[in-house]
Design a protein that fits this description.
Layout (H helix, E strand, L loop, with lengths): L2 H19 L5 H15 L9 E14 L1 H5 L4 H21 L3 E6 L2 E7 L7 H26 L6 E17 L4 E6 L1 H12 L4 E5 H7 L4 E2 L3 E3 L8 E9 L4 E2 L11 E13 L2 E2 L4 E8 L3 E6 L8 E8 L4 E16 L2 E10 L2 H18 L4
Parallel strand pairs: 4-6
Antiparallel strand pairs: 1-3, 1-4, 2-3, 4-5, 6-9, 7-9, 8-9, 9-10, 11-12, 11-13, 11-15, 13-14, 14-17, 15-16, 16-17
Helix pairs in contact: 1-2, 4-5, 5-7, 6-8
Length: 364
């Protein structure tokens, strides 16, 4: 195989990959392919497995609100909306020279590989891509409102570091896979993001701190790490005049649970003696949704007690206000907002929510 034939073969293979996968090979992939073709042209055999260990930035994005569509609309509407959203997201990944690694239900994982010649470039491309994803979702929501569909939002998590990549499997089935701590970390950061929010690790921030406008660091619990770690919210890209749209309604992530609840009604500052029973159906940093056994007036004041099983702890003396009361399929559901609780219990609830969120959305 001479050099012109090798070059033509390389171009043909790249075209096939781009057509089938929707994105071309990155620069590192092109170099690996060139090495394989060169070895073949010299009469050698290709390596059985090609592995690599390199720096990359990983982006996870998850559609929030998708369950409201999938549970109540026909399949053509559900898949049509999913295709519309992810089609736009995949195009943005390609535009910023990233690679869509996989789609997982209503989530997408993308990789932005590093180049030794431009060490910070991959992180900047990933963060810019995330900001443009949030801007694109704002436009998609206009179409959802026009079609009277529930509005969808993205939660995005980004991390930067060393990843291992290669073909994993057997002759019966194998796939190109990217693994490593940073992949898991990006997935866990995404689980903590609110709708319309972009969160990134400190490692990513180190690459983009002169490029992106970010919020103050936040201490969060990340599964698998003993100590808390810092994440930062991406607010915009000032050099390019891009700002992440703010979502006024977002306050805290919520996670579905099923936890027994005890509550006591307050009369002024006096706590009632009779304990009512219920079940916590979801919980956030600042409140919960409970299914109760008896009726309750809106704006009623209560004292609550409930277990936090993942911590082996019990939240006591949590004071709350009933901000919504509704009946749904024969169940009485009460939305409660915490009004007073100790700093220790507040921290326990925050930690429990973060742990449960990461358990709910496991990394691939």
């Amino acid at each position: 195989m001479n050099q012109p034939l090798e070059r033509d073969a390389l171009r043909a293979i790249q075209d096939i990959i781009a057509r089938e996968k929707g994105t071309p090979l990155d620069r590192e992939g092109v170099r690996e392919l060139q090495a394989v073709l060169a070895r073949l042209s010299e009469g050698g055999a290709p390596p059985e497995r090609c592995y690599s260990d390199r720096e990359a930035t990983i982006l996870f994005a998850d559609l929030r609100g998708f369950s409201a569509i999938s549970a109540h609309y026909p399949v053509e509407v559900v898949l049509g909306e999913l295709n519309r959203c992810f089609g736009v997201m995949a195009d943005l990944v390609k535009r910023h020279y990233g690679t869509v690694d996989k789609f997982m239900g209503d989530s997408i994982m993308a990789l932005f590989h590093g180049d030794p010649g431009v060490p910070r470039d991959h992180a900047r491309r990933a963060v810019l891509c995330a900001v443009e994803m949030q801007l694109a979702m704002q436009g998609l929501r206009e179409g959802q409102r026009a079609g009277r569909l529930p509005e969808l939002y993205l939660g995005i998590g980004i991390s930067t570091g060393s990843v291992m990549a290669g073909l994993i499997g057997s002759d019966a089935y194998h796939a190109y896979t990217v693994i490593g701590e940073e992949v898991n970390l990006a997935a866990r950061i995404e689980a903590l993001s609110l709708r319309g929010q972009v969160l990134m690790s400190e490692a990513t921030y180190a690459h983009v701190k002169e490029f992106a406008h970010v919020g103050e660091p936040m201490e969060v619990y990340v599964k698998g790490r003993v100590e808390r770690m810092r994440v930062r919210e991406v607010l915009g890209i000032p050099p390019l005049g891009k700002v992440v749209p703010r979502q006024d309604a977002r306050k805290s992530p919520r996670v579905a649970v099923s936890i027994p609840l005890e509550y006591w009604l307050l009369d002024g500052k006096t706590v009632g003696t009779h304990a009512g029973q219920g079940t916590v159906r979801d919980i956030s940093y600042g409140g919960l949704l409970a299914e109760l056994d008896t009726g309750l007036a809106q704006y009623a004041e209560l004292k609550l007690a409930f277990d936090l099983p993942c911590l082996g702890a019990r939240a006591r003396d949590v004071y709350a206000r009933a901000v919504s009361v509704r009946e749904q399929q024969g169940r009485l559901l009460v939305g409660m907002e915490f009004t007073s609780l100790s700093a220790e219990v507040e921290e326990q609830i925050r930690l429990a929510v973060q742990m449960l969120l990461q358990e709910e959305r496991r990394s691939p």
